[in-house]
Amino acid sequence: MILKISDEYIGQRLDKFLLSHYPDKTRSHIKHWIEDGVIKVNDKIVKAGYEIRSTDIIDMGEVVEKVLSSEPQDIPIEV
Question: Does position 68 have pLDDT exceeding 60, yes or no?
Fold first, then answer.
């Protein structure tokens, strides 16, 4: 997914900008996405504190979340 920057976000830190798009995530989680190269700016890996410019294109890559199931499972046990 590609994100284009609106004027209200120019000069804002990348990690804070992404928090506005993923409010259920922590800044630490987003920082890991950035450091791991999942999220790139202008096809480059940048730091979480990168200041966004009007010409930037943010590539979200394939941000995939592991979904943990909390559904009970029927496991046969012999006693």
Answer: no
63, pLDDT greater than 70: no
Residue 47 has what pLDDT?
94
Query: What's the rounded Cα separation, in Å, for the pair 6 and 69?
Result: 37
Structure tokens at 39: 């999220």
Q: State the DSSP string of the chain.
A: -EEEPPGGGTTSBHHHHHHHH-TTS-HHHHHHHHHTTSSEETTB---TTPBP-TT-EEE-----PPPPP----------
CA-to-CA distance for 1 and 37, rounded, in angstroms? 14
